[in-house]
Amino acid sequence: MQEPTFLILTALAAEPLHGYGVIRTVDELSAGDVVLRPGTLYGALDRLAEQGLVEVDREESVDGRLRRYYRLTSTGAAALAAQVERLRRHADAAEARLRRPRGRTAFGAVTLGVAR
To answer: Which residues fall in a coiled-coil region (predicted)?
Structure first.
């Protein structure tokens, strides 16, 4: 799962949001690292809806413009939970390797740092 998709699903996990709400929430969740443009977002939302991960919750008119709210489906919630677990396993593996003394392999042998 690509990071923008993960963040879009995460944004919708708490409550239904309209497009601009998703954009703002993704910006907050990623601390500004992921910036979604409207065209990118709506393309992603269409794709996620086709996959059954999100669906339209409701539509309302605000200042003469249609505002569409999206929500996470149960399939989307399950996909997000699976991705969270996968990322957690990867982060745990990385953290364990960082704690290992440098220059030692998993089997205790010392590496010489010779380029191959």
So the answer is: none
Range of the domain at 32: 3-99
- Encoded amino acid at 2, one letter: Q
70 vs 48: CA distance, rounded Å: 10
CATH number reported for the structural domain that contains residue 32 in this entry: 1.10.10.10
- Distance from C-alpha of 69 to C-alpha of 19, rounded to nearest angstrom: 7
| In the predicted structure, residue 65 carries a pLDDT above the cut 60 | yes
Distance CA 11, CA 54 (A): 11
Q: In what order do the strands lie in the sheet with 65-72?
A: 17-18, 65-72, 54-62
pLDDT digits (tens, 9 = 90+) for 19-35: 999 999 999 999 999 99
